[in-house]
Design a protein that fits this description.
70% helix, 6 helices, 185 residues, mainly alpha
Length: 185
C-alpha cells in the first residue's frame, strides 16, 4: 500500500492541507529558514563564499514529495517569499525556483532511491534550472542581472555550500514533510 504524506491528494480530490499544529511546524520552518539563511549569508559573504541556497533546497524537497503541479506552485511560492524578503526584481527567484523544481522533477522521474548521488544530482539539477531561468530572464528583460563572471564565481561555490548543508536540511524536510515519495508522476 502506498504511503501518503500530509500534502498528498486525498481520494475525494483537492489538496489535503495539514491541520492544527502542523501549520505551526510549517510557519516555524519558514522562520528557521529565514534565520539560518540570513545567518549563513552574513557569515560567509564577507569572506567571499557564496552561502547555501536553503530556499532552493526547500523547492527541491517539495519536488521530491509533492505531485508535479503542487511542487512547481510550492517552489514558486517559496521563491516569491524569497523575493519579498530581499531586494531585487520581484518574481526572479520565484521563477528560478520553479525552473529548478522542474529539473528536479525530471531527476525524480529517472533516479529513484536516495543517498549522496540523489542529493548531488538534486542540487545540481535545481541550480542548473534556477540559473538557466535567471539567464533566460536576464536576456528577455535586457538587464545585466547575470553575467559570465557571476556564473563562474557564484554557481560552483553555491553548489558546494548547498550540497554540504543539504544532508542536514534534508533531514529537517523529512521530519516536516515525510520521506520522498515514489510514483507521484
Amino acid at each position: 500500500m502506498k504511503q501518503l504524506n500530509r500534502f498528498d491528494l486525498p481520494s475525494r480530490g483537492g489538496l489535503a492541507l495539514p491541520a492544527g499544529p502542523q501549520w505551526l511546524m510549517i510557519v516555524a520552518y519558514f522562520v528557521l529558514l529565514i534565520i539560518v539563511q540570513g545567518f549563513l549569508a552574513r557569515l560567509l559573504q564577507p569572506i567571499g563564499i557564496a552561502p547555501p541556497d536553503l530556499f532552493l533546497l526547500t523547492g527541491a524537497a517539495l519536488a521530491w514529495r509533492w505531485r508535479p503541479t503542487g511542487a512547481l506552485l510550492g517552489a514558486f511560492t517559496v521563491g516569491l517569499l524569497q523575493d519579498i524578503l530581499g531586494a531585487g526584481a520581484l518574481g526572479l527567484h520565484a521563477a528560478g525556483l520553479a525552473g529548478g523544481a522542474l529539473l528536479v522533477l525530471a531527476v525524480r522521474r529517472w533516479l529513484p532511491g536516495g543517498g549522496w548521488r540523489r542529493l548531488a544530482l538534486t542540487v545540481a539539477a535545481a541550480l542548473v534550472g534556477q540559473w538557466f531561468t535567471f539567464t533566460l530572464l536576464t536576456y528577455v528583460l535586457r538587464t545585466n542581472l547575470v553575467t559570465v563572471p557571476t556564473l563562474l564565481k557564484v554557481v560552483p561555490m553555491t553548489f558546494l555550500t548547498t550540497f554540504l548543508i543539504g544532508w542536514s536540511w534534508e533531514s529537517l524536510m523529512t521530519y516536516l514533510l515525510g520521506r520522498p515519495q515514489e510514483g507521484l508522476d
